[in-house]
């Protein structure tokens, strides 16, 4: 899981399609997802482990996720953020628990189960008080990934979402690309 978090680190441009089965408003659109890896010594790891009654010694680290409107320069909204702590089942890290400070469907602390299939697809199952969620995520390339998710109420599936996510280059990488292109164009003249 920690390898997956490291592979996910950065800013992602997300295009999202959401289908609500109960007729609620459409949440399809574009947004940014900011992912930051958290070392196991980070205070948030201990706080979330303590909150869930799990020994911090079992934690491998974690990641912080923050969603924002596309290209929104406003102050980041903590209501659209979550911290996930990896509690692997064993040394392979291919399955385990994710402790979340707050859930996506219900804004309560929650424990998720995760596992990686032989095909590399990550599956996360989450049991809330009144809902169940499942998310699957995989990389098509280093800089492009796909997520699909469902939220199920007691009376059946409530929504299905599909997200395609493209990694945004960092400012340093953009400057490097510009310099490379300028060097190329000046050498051609």
Detailed description of the structure:
The protein is of the alpha+beta class. It has a single domain (2-188), classed as Beta Barrel (Lipocalin), CATH 2.40.128.20. It is built from 3 helices and 10 strands. It has helices spanning 2-8, 43-52, 171-188, and strands at residues 10-20, 29-38, 61-69, 81-88, 95-100, 110-116, 122-127, 131-141, 144-153, 156-168. Strands 1-2-3-4-5-6-7-8-9-10 form a 10-stranded antiparallel barrel. It is globular. The termini are far apart. The model has no long low-confidence stretch (mean pLDDT 88).
The CATH homology group name = Calycin beta-barrel core domain
Structural class: alpha+beta
Main sheet: strand order:
1-2-3-4-5-6-7-8-9-10
- Main sheet characteristics: 10 strands, antiparallel, barrel
Helix content: 10-25%
Alpha-carbon Rg, integer: 18 Å
> What gross morphology would you assign?
globular
Task: Name the CATH class.
Answer: Mainly Beta
Unreliable runs, pLDDT <50, ≥5 residues?
none
CATH topology heading? Lipocalin
Task: Tell me the number of strands.
Answer: 10
Average pLDDT number: 88
CATH architecture: Beta Barrel
Number of domains: 1
> How large is the count of helical segments?
3
- Helices and strands, in N-to-C order? HEEHEEEEEEEEH
The end-to-end distance, rounded to whole angstroms, is 48 Å
Beta-strand percentage range = over 45%
Quick structural summary:
The protein has 189 residues and is α+β, with helices and mostly antiparallel strands.
Helix-strand blueprint:
Layout: H1 2-8, E1 10-20, E2 29-38, H2 43-52, E3 61-69, E4 81-88, E5 95-100, E6 110-116, E7 122-127, E8 131-141, E9 144-153, E10 156-168, H3 171-188
Antiparallel strand pairs: 1-2, 1-10, 2-3, 3-4, 4-5, 5-6, 6-7, 7-8, 8-9, 9-10
